Amino acid sequence: MSAERFDCHYCKDTLLGKKYILKEDTQYCTKCYENLFANCCEECSLPIGCNCKDLSYKDRHWHENCFKCAKCSKSLVDKPFAAKDDLLLCTECYSHEYSSKCTTCKKTIMPGSRKMEYKGNSWHETCFLCQRCQQPIGTKSFIPKDNNYFCVACFEKQFAYQCCACKKAITTGGVTYQDKPWHRECFTCIGCKRQLAGQRFTSRENYPYCLDCFSNLYAKKCVGCTKAITSLAGAKYISFEERQWHSECFTCMQCSVSLVSRGFLTQRDDILCTDCGREK
To answer: CA 204, 205, 206, 208 torsion: positive or negative?
Structure first.
């Protein structure tokens, strides 16, 4: 009985006593394996044989001896490298050719290191400092001023106005009243606390009031309707013997005819048109 054959799957040559490669449970002689499956080296274009290391990067392959910097030819095996326009470069060559320089220390910002960028300038993360406290700003918010940069806390301490109501810094949305700064939300009616920013208001004794509160507190009351008379809203009124009426409320107590620009008579506290007055 003959011995079981052990041949190359592709060329059928016997593999007994020879080196072979197993791929997906199928055996191949080294020559067939290289012809069928070996990758071509990006540098020398030759197949990467079974006896060589196959170094790969983004679906590209190199012999170990061919894996080197495209500029200085130093080996990149087990070393950091960077890619530029399909070229592999050692970090020194890449930095010299392409890396940005730190605006503060003027040194190269090495590939892979953390950096800050703002309006075309770059910094090492540890060089991007608040001008006032000299602490790294990192990923925190910052405010530029006069070619310097400040963390928010330092900017508020050094430059921001303080609200005269809450004494906290005003960074956005402030209003000015009597030459004093206020947060919009802090500038409120002294009576009802309604926000006054963007609304009509008036003042008394240097305190701001909305029109409703001012009218209720200080405006004269109409004898006819008992509601406040205020010229702030453009209302016209009639005044007679220390009493006031809205123009539309100044009517005859008897027949309700308007007495504006007409003669009238008084009977105790009543105001009458001349016709109704004569009848009395």
So the answer is: negative
Q: What is the CATH number of domain 100-158?
A: 2.10.110.10
CATH architecture of 163-216: Ribbon (2.10)
Per residue in 227-262, pLDDT (tens digit) is 877 665 456 778 888 788 888 888 998 888 988 888
Triad 60, 61, 66: Cα angle to 5°: 125
**Domain coordinates of the chain in residue numbers?**
20-96, 100-158, 163-216, 221-279
User: What span, in angstroms and rounded, lies between the C-alpha atoms of 75 and 155?
Assistant: 49
Q: How many CB atoms neighbour CB 215 within 10 A?
A: 20
- According to DSSP, residue 280 is labeled -
**20-96: CATH class:** mainly beta
At residue 131, φ and ψ (nearest 5 deg) are -60, -30
